[in-house]
Amino acid sequence: MMVSVNVCQNSFLLLQASTMNRHITSKFEIPAGSFYAFLLLSSTIWIALYDRVIIPLASKIRGKPTRLGLKQKIGLGILVSAASMAVLAIIERVRLETAIREGISDNPDAAMHMSAMWLLPFYFLLGFSEAMNGVGQNEFFYTELPKSMSSVASNLFSIGLSAASLVASFIVSVVRGFISGENQESWVSSNINKGHYDYYYWLLATLGFATFIYYLACSKAYGPCKGGQGGIAGDVREGSADDDDDVDDDYSSLS
Could you list the residue ranges that cross the membrane (predicted)? Predict the structure, then answer.
């Protein structure tokens, strides 16, 4: 859930990028709204690297076929997503200090000298977490549910995304309701240079790490997946052709 909640923060990232230097050359500037494309690009690259580079390399090093289990993928996605929000909080803190130093705190539309490319490590990590978590969840649903419920399995991940959007809005509402007043700016103030979006991102990171701990408990209570597709406690488990065929059969049943 928290992985998708973190993905829903695009409107705040748009505010950040709009105040930063987005020039690639003296004549070309990346639109602030286009930075979301880096998340999509990162997810696509990570999926390709996982199948074509990471798994073959790990198998070569270990001398036998190797892959991550379904629950390992999901857990890794949750953990890296929380780490990405911690990275974003640090970046926002530096951006806020730069705005104060350059004297533009009262002008949210002013552009500073800090490059917007500093946001790329966040997108890089969040893209990885979304790829791992998304693929892991879909494979988990297809594997664990009966084949007669394949249509249900194909929609569970989308339902989770919708629920995450509501949770993200609820968190923002709570932050605005409890951390604001006549003499105190909200963490998510409309003037990004007056608010404390870094505190907000630290809150999301904390919730993310708490979600990871909760996931560990749920994973242990659930037990092994069908086909022996490893739990989160293992490092990297040995895969088998039979397991891959089972997942392929689940996907083909949808067509």
Answer: 35-53, 74-91, 156-179, 199-217
Single pTM value for the model: 0.81
Distance of alpha carbon 95 from its chain centroid, rounded? 21
Q: What is the DSSP string of 146-208?
A: -GGGHHHHHHHHHHHHHHHHHHHHHHHHHHHHHS-BTTB--TT-SSTTTS-HHHHHHHHHHHH
Instruction: Indicate the residue type of 217.
Output: A
**For residue 170, what is the domain's CATH number?**
1.20.1250.20
Beta carbons of 157 and 138 less than 8 angstroms apart? yes
pLDDT of residue 90: 96
Domain that holds residue 97: 2-250
Task: State how far the Cα of 254 lies from the Cα of 46, in Å rounded to an integer.
Answer: 25
How many domains does the chain divide into? 1
Close Cβ partners of 62 (under 8 Å, ≥ 6 residues apart): 236
Read off the DSSP letter of residue 245.
Answer: H
